[in-house]
Structure formats: C-alpha cells, structure tokens
Amino acid sequence: MSSTTAADTIEVMEHDDTCPRIGGSKLTAEEKREIDREFAYYEDKGSVGLEALRLVQRHRGWISDETLYAISDYLGISPTQLESIATCYQMIFRQPVGQEVLFLCKSSSCWIMGCERLQHHLQQKLQIAPGETTSDGMFTLLETPCLGDCDKAPVMMVGEEMHRHLTEEKLDELILEKKSHNVDQSAD
Amino acid sequence: MPKITIDGKHYEVDGEQNLLGTCLSLGLNLPYFCWHPAMGSVGACRQCAIVEYKDADDDDDDGKLVMGCMTPVKDGGIYSIGAETAREFRGGIIEDLMTNHPHDCPVCEEGGECHLQDMTEMSGHTYRRFRGLKRTHRNQYLGPFINHEMNRCIACYRCVRFYRDYAGGDDLDALGRNNQVYFGRQCDGRLESGFSGNLVEVCPTGVFTDQTFSRHFVRKWDLQTAPSICEHCAVGCNTAPGARHDFSGHGENLRRVVNFYNRDINGYFICDRGRFGYEYANSDRRIKRVLVARREEIIGSTAGRGDRLHREVEPPAALELLAGSILEAHRGQRQLIGIGSPRTSLENNFALRQLVGASNFYSGLDARELGLLQRLDRIQRDPRIHSPTIPEIENADAVLVLDEDISRTAPRIALALRQAARNRQKAHAQSLKIPLWQDASVRQLRGEASPIFIVGSRASYFLGDIAQENCLATPADTALFADRVASLVAGRDAAEYPLPDELLQLSERVADTLKNATRPLVISGCGSLDQDILAAAGKVAACLGEATGTPCATYLACPEANSLGLAQLFPEEEGSLDHLLQYLAQRQPESPPVSLLLLENDLYRRMPAESVETLFDSAAELILLDTLFQPCSRRADLVFPAAATPESQGSFVNSAGAMQRYYAVYEGAGYIQESWRWLVDAVNAPACRELSNESPAAALREWEHSHDVTEAIARTVPGLTRLSEVGPGEDFRIEGMKVARQSHRASGRTANRADQRVAERPPHQDPDSPFTFTMEGIQYAGASPLQANIWSPGWNSNQAIHKFQQGIGGRREGGDGNLVMDRIAGEMPAWDAPATAASASPHQPGEFRLVPVYRLFGSGELSNYSPSIAELAGKPLIQVSQPDASAFNIESGAILHLQLESGELALEAAVSDEMAVGVLGIPRGLKDAPELNSLLPATASVSRVEQPAQEEEI
Amino acid sequence: MLTNPLTKNIGADNTAADIGRYRENGGYRGWRKALQMSPADIIEMVQEAGLRGRGGAGFNTGLKWSFVPQGEDAPAVRYLVCNADEMEPGTFKDRLLMERDPHLLLEGMAIAAFAIGARRAYIFIRGEYHLAAARLENAIEEARREQLIGDSIPDTDFQLHIHVHRSAGNYICGEETALLNALEGQRAIPRTKPPFPQVSGLWGKPTVVNNVETLCNIPHLLDLGVDWYKNLGRADDSGTKVFGVSGRVRNPGAWELPMGTPIREIIEQHAGGMRDGVKLRGLLPGGGSTDFLGPDQLDLPMDYDTIGKAGSRMGTGTITILDDHTCPVGLVLNLSRFFARESCGWCTPCRDGLPWIVTILERIERGDGQPGDLDLLREQAQRMGPGNTFCALAPGAAAPIQSALKLFEQDFVQHLTRGCCPYAQEQQRVAQAV
Ligand SMILES: Cc1cc2nc3c(=O)[nH]c(=O)nc-3n(C[C@H](O)[C@H](O)[C@H](O)COP(=O)(O)O)c2cc1C
Ligand code: SF4
Ligand code: FES
Q1: Pocket around ligand 3: residues whose beta carbon is below 6 Å from it?
Q2: Size of interface A-C (CB pairs under 8 A)
Q3: pLDDT tens, residue by residue, B742-762
Q4: B594 Cβ inside 6 Å of ligand 2
Q5: Which domains are seen in chain A, by residue range?
Q6: ipTM value of the model?
Q7: Beta partners for residue B175, in sequence order
Q8: Whose CA is nearest to atom 2 of ligand 2?
Q9: What pTM does this model have?
C-alpha cells in the first residue's frame, strides 16, 4: 500500500509524522457516529477531544496508542495534543483495565467512615494494589476523589453504579455477584 | 511616563512593560522563570514576587505580594524587591522547585549557564529541607538535535509556549498533571519543528540541550566566542558560535552555535539549519593544506575526464605558482578569470575582482539566478517599497506571500509571520485594555487570525494553519494573479486576465484587504526562480506604496548568505556564468591561456555538468579556494584552504539589504585562512615582485587587515559606501584594550597545546579585528557591538542579554551592527504583465511545469555537511499533486520518467497534497543530486511510470 | 408560603420528577414569566434578590450577569455554562438536585441564558455522575419536545440549546476558567483574568458560569418575586440553601434550609447530633477547601459573611464533621493528598508545595515527624495563601492545613512527641463498632 504523503521527504515543517497518526485500528462506524453527534455542540472539531476519548473508551474499555492515533486522525489534532488532554483526566484509561473498574472513594467523609479498611479488605481479597488489575482481568481497583455521596459513606462506584454504606460483608457480596455475572456473560 | 518607587529609589519608566520587565530594564535583579521577553507573561512559576504598597504615608502597610510579571506598572506605585516577605516567598518557590530537581549540576550540560542556578543564587536559597523522594521520568528520543532530560524540569512551561504557541509546533506538549507533568511527545521521535533548537535556550534548566554540542561539550566559560552571522541562508541571523581547542590534534574546533540577539534581524530565535548546520566546519572534508596537482593523468574507473591527483605542498611553493600566473597575466601572456561566490564575504569576492580586474570577474551564478537577484535589487531600490525588519514583519496587518516557500528559504521570516497572524487578536486585547505582555490573556481571546494569503505552487505546512487562504497555482498563474492584484490596488483596468475563477476572486479579496491594511506586507523572492513573479510582487508593493503614500514593506528572499552583496559587484545584465561561457567560446584560439580562479563555489550546483566541463576544458589552469572538498576540486591544479565563516572576518548583505560583519571565532586548522589573504599573499610573493604598481592587482599589496579590504570596497562599490562603518576596525580599543574572545574563567591555557610543547606558547595575534584570541583584554564588552559572550554578574545564561538592551526587546546597547546599503534609489521599470498567452492556454494534459522544492534540511549547501542535518536530508523525490497522480496513475514510490527538452529524467515520485496541479516539484540543493538544480525552469511530459514493487501481503 | 423551592419536588424515592409532574407542580412558570420580561429586568431582579453564587465564592449572581456586554456592539454569541463538576470533598448537594429534579436546573438555565442572551448552554458535569447526566439528558429531550427550549419556543424568537458535557475526573475543572479550557478541548488549566469570562470566555465569547444550585434558585425567584426570596433567609443572606452533614452523625444527609440557619441547628436537629460515643471536635463548614471551625463556633449562622468573618468560608455549605475518635492529622493528610493529586500542575507553590506537604504529613502521621515540621507546614500553607498562587485551588488546599495547625496543634505535637498516631487504635475500635 502506498501512503498519500511522501514518507521519505524527511523535512521539518512538513507533515512528516514521527508518531504515526493512523495506527492499526480505525474507529468503527458507530464510534464515528457518536463523535459526529458531538461536533454540533462545539465550535470546532478540535474541541471534541475529551468527548471522543470518552465515547470510544466506552466501547473499548481503554485507549490504546492505536486508538489514540485513530481518534487524533479523525479529529485532525495531533497525537501529542490529544495525549496532553487524555492525561489530564483520571477516567481516561491509557492502560488496559479489568471488566469491572472499582472506584473506591478515598475522600474526607469516606475516610472518616472507614474507607481505608475497605481498601485493605479489597486489596487482600483481590490481591491487587490501587491502579492494578486482577490477574484474571476481572477487576481494576482505583482510588477516587469524593464521589459526592458523603452522607452515605463509605461508597464505591463500580462501573457506573454506586454502592453505598459499604461494609466488608457488602463488598464480599458485591465481588461475588460481579464475578458470577461476568462468568455468566462469558459463557453466553 | 509613570513615576515609581522601588525600594526607596525613584524612577521614571515607560510603563509599556510589566513590573518585572521594568525592574530588569532598570538593572534591578528580580528572579523569574516563566516570563520570556519575546513570549510575555503567564504567571506560572510565581518566582518574580515583589511587594506592592498601597501608599507611601501608611507606615504600617505591610503591602501585598504580587507577581512582577503579571502586574502593570502604576504611576506613583511603590514597590519593594528586597522586602522580607518577598524574599522569603521567592526563596520558598526555589525550594519548592528544587524538591524534584536533581542535584546533578556537575554532569549537567546547562551547568555554568543555567538560569535555574542563577535564580537559585539570586533568591538566596541555599539549604534544602525537603527529604522526600524525587519523582523520576523516562526521557524521550527527540531526534538528532535535542537531548531530553525530563528530571531536571521545573515546569515553567516555556518549552511548550515557545514550541506550540510561538512556533506553531504540534508534537510537543505538556502531558499529565500535578507534579507529574511531563513535557514531551506522545511517543519517542524527532521533534518536527524547524525551530526546535531554540528549546535549548528557552529552557531555563538542562531538560533540552544541544545534542551536537554534547558530542564535544565544554562549559560555556571555556568557549571562545565572537559575533558571527549565520551563513546558511540570506536572512542573516546573528549568532554567537563557540569554539575550543580540540585535544585530538585538530587545533580549534567549533563546538556549537547559539542565537545572538539582534532586534531587527532575528531577535531571540534562529532556525535549526542555522543552529545545527555549523558542523560542516569540523567536517573531515575540510581542506586544510595547500594542494597542487600532480602532472600524471589518473588511470582509474572512477576518475573523470581531466581529474587530477594532488599532493600537499608548503604554501610558499603554491603561492609562487599562483604569483607566476598573476605576473604572466600582467604581461599579457595569460588571462586571469575570477569566479566569485554568494556564500562567501564581500571581502573575498572583492579581492578576487580586484586581482583579475572587473571585466574578468564573474559572479559564479548562472544568468537566470543573477538575473533574478538583479531584478530583486532593482525592486528594492524603488522608493515606494521598503525592506522590513523582523519587528515590522511581526507587526504587519495583512500579508501576501507570492510563490516563496518562506519557511524553507528564509525560516526566521516565517517565524515572524506567525506572530503577524496574531495582530487582530492583539488589537482586540488592546481594546479590552489588556496589555500585550499578558500573553495568556491575549491568546485566550481567540478570534480571527490577521489575513495572510499564500499563493504559489506549493502549500505551506508551517504557515498553513494560520493562513487565511493558501491557494495552489502554477507559477504562470501566480504571476498573473499578482499582476492583477497590482492593477486592482492601483485602480487600473483588470478585466482581461485569463485566470481561473478561483484566482480571479481571490485577487479581489487580496487587493481589498491589502489596500485597507495599515501595515501591508508583500513577500516573495528568488525561490520560485521566476522573473515574472518577482516583477509582479514588486508591482503589487509599489502600487500599495503609492496608494497608501508610505513605502510598502516588502520582503524578497535571496537564496544565499551573500547573494545580494555579490550582486552589487556587477552591473545589470553582466557577470553570469553564461556570459563567461559565451566569452570563452568566442575567444580566439591564439589568445593567451586562461587561468580560472574559482572562489568558494561548487559550479556543479550551478550549471549542467557538461557546461562545467566545457568551462574547465577551456581554461589552461584551475585554481580553487574553498573550505570543503567539492566536485570542482578534482579538476583543480591548485587548491588553497579557505576559512569558513566562523574562522574568518567579513561582510554579508542579507535579503533585506542590511550589511553585517562577522568576526573570526577561532583560527582555522592547518593553513586555513581567508581567501582574500591567499590572493594578497600571492601578490606579495617573490614571483610578483615585478608586478608594477599601476596594475590593479598591485592594490592588494596595500591590504594588511581585513578592514583594509572592507574600506576598499566602501570606496569603490556604489551602494556599499558605508560598509566600513558596519563594525569597528582592528584598531578599535576599549580603555586601550582589545576585546577578549575568551572569558576570564577560560581554563587549560597552559595545558591545551602541551602535547606539542610544554612551555606556554605566546598567544596568537589577531591582526584583523579588535579581538584577542585569549582571555587578555576587555572581558565583558557587552555594551559594544563586539560582545558575543553575553554575561553579567549573577547572570550566566543567555538571559543576561537584558543587561545589554535598551529596554526589554530593544536594540543592543552597543548597537546591533547592521547598516542598510545606500543603493541609488530609482523606480523599477514598468515591467509588462507576464505573457498572458502562456497561462491562457491551460497546461496541456501530460505537460508539467517543473518547479523547485526546498527543504530546510537538505537544500543548504554547507549545512548538508553537518551530520545531524545530513541525517534528515532525505533522498531526491519528485513531488506530484494528488489529482495529477490519480490522472497518471502515479503512486508514491513509483519511478517517474520525464521527457524534458534537455533530455530524460527518472526519479522516484512522492504524491503530495501540498503541490499545485500541473506542476512537478524538483528538489533543489540536495547534496547528492546537484544536477537537478540546473534543470529548472523547464516543462516536461511524463513518458513512463514504473510502479513500485508491490509489497507482499503476509 | 413556599419555603423549600429547591427541593419541593424531591420525594423519598430515588426518582426524578418527569416533565409532567414538574409542570403540574408549577414548573416552567418562572420561565414563562421571564420570557415576558426584558433581560435587563431579569438581571436587575436577580441582583436585587441578593442571590449569591452557591459554587463557593458567593458572588452576587445578578451582578455577575450584568457584566456581560449588552447592546449593539456586544458579541452576538454568548454562552451559559452550568458548573456541575461537584468534586469538592464532602460535597453532595448538586448531585441531589440534578438527579432528583433535573427540570428545575433546566428552567433556571433557560432563564439565565435568556437574561444574558446566550443561545447555547452547557452543563459541565463530572464524569462520575452518570445517573445525573442521563437524567439531565432525558429532561433536555422532554423540554425540547414540549418546546420549552430548542429551536422554536412559542411566542419568542429566542432559541436555546443545552448540552451535557461529561468530564472525566479532574477537580480543577470546577474552577470556572479551567472549566472553560476543558470545554474547549484544551488542557484544564485556569486562565488569566482579565479578561473575565463574562467578557471573553468560552471560545472567546462572553460566558457566564454558574453553579447548579445557584441556577436552581432562579425559577422560583422569578415566579414568586424578590420579596418572597429575600424573606426566605434567616439572617443577612437571602434564599434557601441545601445544607448537608457527613461524618459520624446519627442522620447524615442534605436538607434545604433558610440561609443563616445556625450550624448547631443543622447538626443537631437535622443530622440528629453526634453518634453515641463520639464527640464533635471540629468541622469543615463547606467542603475540603474551607478552614476548620471549632465546637465553640456552632452557634454561627450559615451565612457567607458570618462564616467568612469567623475565619472560614461557607464554601458549598455541606458540612464535614471531625469527631474525637478521628485523627485530625490523618484527615488533613487525606485532604492534602487529594489536593496534591488534583493540582493542575501550572503554578509552583501548588504543584510542588502540596506533594511536599503530603510527605511531611505522612511522616508526622507515621510517627516519624521531625522538630520543625510544623513550622515548615505553616510556612508552606502561607506560601499557598490567596493571591500567591495562580488560582484558588491552593489557598483552598491550605485552608484545612493552617486551621488544623491552630485548632488541633496539640494533636500534631502529640504525634511528634509520641512518635506514633495517638488515634490509631481508637480509630480501629470505633470503626469496628460502627
Ligand atoms: C479549585 C476550584 C474548584 C471549584 N469547583 C467548583 C465546583 O465543583 N462546582 C462549582 O459550582 N464551583 C466550583 N468552583 C467555583 C467556580 O470557580 C465558580 O466560582 C463557580 O462555579 C461560580 O458559580 P456561582 O457564582 O454560581 O457560585 C471551584 C473553584 C475552585 C477554585
Ligand atoms: S538559516 Fe537563515 S533563518 Fe536560519 S538561522 Fe541561519 S540565517 Fe537565520
Ligand atoms: S516569571 Fe512571574 S510568575 Fe513566572
């Protein structure tokens, strides 16, 4: 296959990409459709960076380099600029995460109400530290700033759902339930 | 003029600057990091804290801590730099910054000229209380120019502000956040911007350092420096190269080039070709000895017709040979013919002219190129136009660029144009009463870019994002378009222009915009190799000048460092290589034999090889003076080693007509000396004793110092009468002393040459300049034009420049050392509109116009011998537009066979969305394809396309 | 007389009022009234009512709106942005309002947008608020269908498009100028002022940023008038406010109460007082970036100026309680970690000072504290004081530190002298009992 720009005219001030702009993966039609919908709300395509990252991440779980290049190409902003935005936000994952991401609230009220203990419990149970993923790829544990549910502390968000008034027992149930749920799904 | 009080002292200041800039220009020391004189304030580092008091009477007013760089100067304002709260705060900031900064100054290349070191000292912070772990970053590979050591980062954001905001690069940015913030690329890879080298100077610590310098690093204080002029294009940026004795036995060695502030020509920044091209001076291809051809013919497969074998001789022997020829010429038994060069000084060219006589002196340029220069010169002499300085270019409020790929042919100008694009935004800021130094505030206003129109055969990537319109057109159409713009501006009838609709409409918009602008700017040059475009550009400018009543700013780019200076030595329509060939061809066979003296010029880059051969064949003798071995040296009977720009003193004239002087930074190795000096030595050689004083060549006997030649030029050449005033002569003294090239800390004085002799040698004398080659002399003549080692107590980095400016961003206190030529003014001729017929007939299917394509790295003759630049030069490719490629089924990688009038050409094709339809881009200036230079201009048809071998699918 | 305009539609179950129910309860009446008024009159009315921003700074909302350039020469495009980035530790009021009564916010936004002449509005919502975002999007669709917003609103040529922008976890986005950068797809770094957003904000256009709760105050204010609104407050400030209490109280939660309700009343009557076995040692009146108040300050009315004069800030009005079994050093460490992690990385004292503070607090909490550490902390906190840093994040981060050093100095000293955290076992025990 031939590329459209002269890859060999190495020259500065020319579009000579020392980071590939299009990687192996392209955006799917659906991903593109979702991003396109956002264009209407922003003054230029370049403003949609975070939206695009977030939308594509919903499909792919995380943003790989290839995904980043594909988005950057689609939006017409450089990979470095997109990376600059991606790395501003803790919910954009530039590393693979498990099927379930556990966002354990670590802020003041939950801390007063014992989130450290819960964290300890989770770490023991899942054998992972914050930022890590279980070896079976099921769970990723993340420490999260205040989830805005302080009157129901301690709390944890799993994926998109909130779990409140947590105790060790509730955590055990939750993990069990998620495990069997995910196993069910993979059996389908 | 606001009156202010700082620490009890009263000052009257101009109020244009913020408080920090005001303090600095008053000579007061106030530390800072994120502020930059050319980039303004963003208030990120919080280092420049100062106390502001409400009023003087209030004794127990504790005052308020403000950031100097974010605070406008108030009339009657009372401030304190020395107040305890401010000093404590500033010390605390340094302490904060140091929590992550490694304590690696001894192994850091910034050490000794480090702004962070200076500011740490200045803030008085000495003891570190932080005991935690420092964070560690992984560094990136950023290409052959720049090293990356992220752990030294203090997050002042200057790098991205320069690289992204100022220079428009999109491959370096701040990544991450909090104290993990990282300045780099998305992945390892070469920095794509052609101005990346400025990061070295912009970064206040050792994060970005010069990789070429690393390979032969010495501390700043060990570098020997002198003011120089970049020889890699015709912008004429001022530089401060640094050299140092080299222990491998090569004598002095050029170690690096940094920017040398000149308000009008380059300000704080230079391009990467200028910064990293210097290594040609250290190349193993340097000619260091005198060579003479052996008499036997070479038998061998690679040797061409007339090739010679050489052996070294001692200079007197070779000079005797040259002197013999000079004497013979004087007696009429021989004819001397001199060929000059646009890449060497006026002094060298003039000396050769003087030696051979003006009628025997040729420019070393072909008729087309010399013609372009002479036309350009003609336009510049028109009183309705004027050549702008960098600040004037930055101030333009509407710009038209006509087929000049300015970011590759005069990069620094393109960087200035990027700033011009912000003028609407700046005007908006002023209407909101936001001072222009509030950089972040001004930038966040967004809004439209000031109108920049680019029309030509190649789109500009560097300016593409800020250009209002970037229209692709064939050279013929561009010329016609420009002519129509001129007619519209002048209010003349503009109905009959056979242009495509798009260009017709564009010409109206452009004419309208330019006419309504208060500071319009026209840019063009020799880059297109098209006389018509140049003429039309001149017309547009002249019409604008007439319409507005003020001379129109017009920047016309010349190809080489001294192109315009060289052109001054020839009357119009004379002095080209074509003339020379003609002349030689019609010489009688019985006329005396010809000795060709070739001055620092590779003719194979200027003419087809056959013509060069013909030229050499018709001469009995070829004498070459040059810096590097080049194809012509194979044919030379005598070769003299010529000094490179940083080894010599001389004068260049840049594209804007500014005359500038450069001084030797160090002495060339071996027998290297300036070309003019070889000629003088020959005239002074014993064999020339009989040369009568009437002979013009005898004038050379009078020349002892470089300045003698300069003065002779000033006396002789119209337009250059003020050349000798450009810089002081060799007898200039400060307090009775010469200026030292070395700093007072320079080390190794007795050790440097100890491998040759243990006793300390007497210092080399410099007869040419007011400099010494040692540390003896005035150390810090910053207030004269001679100081290139910018240093002031407490300010070891290049930031010290503000100590030597007339206000922030003003001229250098000692003068910038550039003077504009005083050419005889005269209106340009009323050149006819370009032949309408040519463009009226749309180009035949299958017929293409060949146009030159320039590369920042690859088109510069000398810089191609710098390894770092050679690494990026790339191979020759023909650029084809997308539509033409589809029409002819051309893919990138295919071999394109072209039928030209002069023969057949086969070259790999590259499909590019930057090319106009109907043209093919031919690379110009590449080291390994000199034959392509003389192809243009030409038309060609595609005779065959050889598709690339298909890669196998795995 | 209506006394709970913000929460009157919020029932016990976790559902949101749909547009039908919302309108039955008088919803969008304020909006209809507004459309009959001139924008200038609305602005004056809001200013007159003394509504102060509920995002934390307490700036008069009508006054803020009035800075938007008006008249012929003013830029035609303006924007309204609702700041729903609620990430302040201990704050949980905007979530409640958005999840449970999304139309109230939309109505408030419609009126605000009309008043400043913005035809496009954004709800900048933090990425973790999935439910709120979904309900808002649903409500926008409902309102559009009923032509309350959108391209064609009957009887007016005003148009309004509201878009929900989901962020992705970055506290600094709550700072209004960083928020604007984030919305524009740039790095979330605060901007230099001037220009103020009202003059040059989103994409360089005049922009007003208001907090969710602020905007929720607007509909009834328009409907029921200035006098009614002013009378809602018990002390100097007008209106009601969603106050909340979290920590070891019997009944943590959020309640809409008059401005100026005394802290004691909120804690004792509404939150049910402290749990058995624990005593109140201090409190953060409005989130993690406010100064601690002590037990002797419980009778202060929750009022912007009163709390300000007492040395703290009203902030978000959601109170975090520190009890006597919880280590104050630990709490301050927890908050400092949050702020260090959320520092945007722009200015030095915040970016490099906070991580340093964290290392010091960590060693104190571990029992490795050193003499001089407390002075070092004080010095650091002072360096992050208002005006010394680029934005208000760092002064906010310094607030709990410096106030804890005053209020709980003994605890810090004990950590140093004992070489361990005196609360470690205690904390364990209480936690188990809960
Ligand atoms: C670090 C920081 C975080 C903030 N976070 C929020 C926030 O999450 N929500 C909010 O409404 N205001 C927040 N603010 C205040 C906003 O900057 C702004 O003042 C507010 O949105 C204005 O709305 P209001 O006038 O309606 O209060 C924050 C301020 C700072 C300095
Ligand atoms: S190459 Fe040209 S623009 Fe670059 S530094 Fe040299 S003179 Fe300046
Ligand atoms: S120089 Fe003033 S804040 Fe950086």
Answers
A1: B 20, 32-35, 43-48, 67-69
A2: 142
A3: 998 898 887 777 777 788 777
A4: no
A5: 29-88 (1.10.10), 100-187 (3.40.30.10)
A6: 0.94
A7: B182
A8: B233
A9: 0.95
